[in-house]
Queue: 2 jobs
Job 1
Amino acid sequence: MAYCLSFIICHLSFSPAGAQNPVIRDLFSADPTARVFNGKVYLYPSHDIVPPAGQRQDWFCMADYHVFSSENLTDWTDHGVIVSQEKVPWGKPDGYSMWAPDCVEKDGKYYFYFPNGPKTGRGFAVGVAVSDSPEGPFALEPEPIKGIMGIDPCVLIDSLTPDPSPEGEGSKKTQAYIYWSGMGIRGARLKENMKELDGPVITMEGLPDGFKEGPFAFRRGDWYYLTFPWVREEGGTETLAYAMSKSPLGPWDFKGIIMAEHANRCWTNHHSLVEYKGQWYLFYHTNFFSPNDDKRRSVCIEKVAFNANGTIQEVKPTMRGVGINQATERIEIDRYSSAGNVQTAYIDTTRTPLGACVTLSGKGSWVKYDDVDFSSITDGYLVINVMANDNTRLFVRERSAKGKVIAKVPVTVKSENGPFRRDMSGQWLTLTAPLEYTPKGITDLVVTCDGETVSVDWLRFKNRPKYFSEVGKDDNLAKPDDQGFIRRWRLMEPIAVDVRSNVVFTNSWLRDKFAEELAQLPKQKAKWYTLDSENYNVKLFRFAEKYGKQTYGSFFWCETVIDCSTDIENVRLACGSNGASMWWLNGEEVLLLEGDRRMVEDDGMSQRLTLRKGRNILRAAVINGPGLSDMCARFLDEAGKPVTGYALNDK
Ligand code: FUB
């Protein structure tokens, strides 16, 4: 078990988001039968375990059954063990053969059917356990069902038409049938007590040659479906296949494949189909958590669709699965629902817990990630982790590769920015982009690319933090706050700078850089925003994030207009910045904070200054390389008290 748990935990690090395959992660689970009871999906799988000493190590090994339930197909509750081998009155207490089960409800009772090795003799019998609840406790019948020798029971309860049967079945509203595998697929009627066969055992006819097991029968409209794992060619592994009939016990008309063989040659597959909240789902298993041992399996789910003539559309297994992701969760886009012209690969084969990424190979490539819930995104922006070798462009769209653009992401890995060359080729970059459009409710995301090859690790959406508000919302900020901090600023969109380390922030380097940026300022095309900071310190990196700009490696221009009704003499500018900064009052340099500073209030102090009657312009330039910038500023009088007697103008 130690092996099994550590294995699963190791793989969990691949799966931060809940809504993806496999869905059961705390233990191995196989042969899933899903049923809808009381508005929830109940899952009755087999429970694979690592064989204890003395048991065949390369074979199936199952000692009990758990039941799980979910209302959203994402969060599964394990209700614990419902039947275990040592409690089965007729079973071998150490047979480890509790293979694929089923559970159905009739007249308020839940009937759990399971195969098991009998105490005496060989092979398998099928037992029944009964409960008042889908979660148990289940009372075991003393004997298995007479007349069944085989595995993988499945029960179909058919609704009878209002005028039930010419043979005098009276007021019967339903008829139950049981199917199992053992020398072919067989079926029979069940008595009203659900514990005995009612009539002959019939071998299902019309099915193709080749190994078959795990029947799952259901009715949809007028059609009966018999679905089953099937080995279609010699030496092959199991597909999931199906046949249709107008009668519950056939003969059947074989239709084809629901799911092809597992690409990794996991030998078995086993499944069920269920309709929940208007959508049909296929439950099946893979050995994702145990790639070197195909007898330790895990349940997965995909959506399944029917054609107008009742046939079933083939389902491709995905890592995405079903269920809903919140837009604010990290969406591992390599776990797409469908894709075109992309590759997936580990980010680092030597550090597999980092997970995988998907590479879009330019124009025409796309990945689709189903069912992302945008309900909580009100004022959102996109955060996306990407890597490229050349500048390129990504689009996040709604529903299809031609769908409405939610966000446009220019991926700039190389730039010539003034004298600074920037080259981030082959490095992971976390980029942000404003939303052009915010989808409503639950939708599908499609990522496309119209430029050079680009890899995407994950994306998520965030609401813009309330670090800033529009000017005018708080009239109190038309003057300094009680502590004298200036919170109304005009901020220019940051300019990207190629500064890999802040050790360069020497006095002379900064003077040159600030002089150069000052000279460029009249020609700058970047946008200015006048904002009130929610905090005494102005979080410049949040400002950058808010407007979809790079949050680090940035140069910020900041200005504020100070209106004084009289001269205010002998004040000092007291300020701090993260990174380095230079400050000017009315065009005169008043302070330089050099070196790699942390933002601390009053970190630097100017000489005595005069705020003159009328308009004064306070300007700051803040630069930061790998760090995140912010700054604060206020004026202090000669006693060190905050100066508050002036107005801040937003014009
Ligand atoms: O899980 C044991 C057996 O493997 C099942 O009963 C078969 O259907 C196959 O999935």
Job 2
Amino acid sequence: MQNLLDLDRPAMVEWFRARGEKPFRAQQVVKWIHQQGVDDFDLMTNLAKPLREALKREACIRGPVVASVQRSADGTRKWLFELTDGNRIETVYIPEPDRATLCISSQVGCALNCSFCSTAQQGFNRNLSAAEIIGQLWMANRLLAAEGQAQVSNVVFMGMGEPLLNLDQVLRAVHLMQDDFAYALSKRRVTLSTAGVVPGLQRLARESDISLALSLHAPNDALRDELVPLNRKYRIEAVLQACKAYVGEGRRRVTIEYVMLADVNDSDQHAHDLARVLAQVPSKVNLIPFNPFPAARYKRSSARRIERFRDILYAHGVVTITRRTRGEDIDAACGQLAGDFEDRTRRRQRISVELMGGAA
Ligand code: SAH
């Protein structure tokens, strides 16, 4: 049984062609699924009955199932989605006056083991399929439409997982996000956030033009080694070079994410160093107040410290904004997504050692 959510438009055309159907049939089906949110072939009224019957036999349209939903006082909501194998992932909807952002997951858990992130605590379980990635957007829009709420206008790969370590599936989902026959989101409205996987950045530059965010969090390698262990494999200099190469023609500045950890990376000197390090890359800085979680060993920098840090960056001419924390009351803020593992024997499994080439 082919889950049609797994197919971007070229793959859908191929799938229909193999069944002796014209390419425009594939386009019609893509529109039904992604623009109308339909999962019932009988509702696809512009397809002939025999084709609908054949589709019912050979294909399905199956998204993740809502296990629970939590609503924040600020309008943010967090869905816990259950996948067919019982694993659970989190997806966050963040409404604002001028946009509605969906923060989606790319893996069940995460292998990178960043010391300030709650997703790291559960270790890595598996990659999501393209269907499971686009399925978060597909399902969110269906649920929102049923309530008369604004459809998703922006997508950020800032949920669970490292998207550049699941790039095949992520790119297929991105194609659908950008496809005029599906979600038609412009490159400004789809942002991939990465801890800095250099080969992934290089491939992304060849195959995509979406917006890029880099989780930097430290201005020097010694400190970044501690916060983002992936840094032992891909040093700041190499990562920033790859980001610079990414920001070629027609692409915007890279967003630099910097989590504000009290007395760890938030001194005046860190701010000066950060400005110097960033001078070589067209970038803007997003300061993220640390969001606590059980067993966290860090504290959030004070509001005054964050302001001071921002002012120093400003003085160096670095465009800086402080990310407003949303959905904190439902653990939906950055770094608070945990999901749930079905297979608890694999809970502590990490592929980080292999990933770091033994350096960890
Ligand atoms: N693996 C990707 C995608 C995760 S994005 C990446 O590293 O970019 C999630 C963002 O939230 C990242 O910038 C991450 O560093 C940040 N983050 C993680 N834990 C956090 C926490 N406890 N408080 C604030 N931000 C956090």
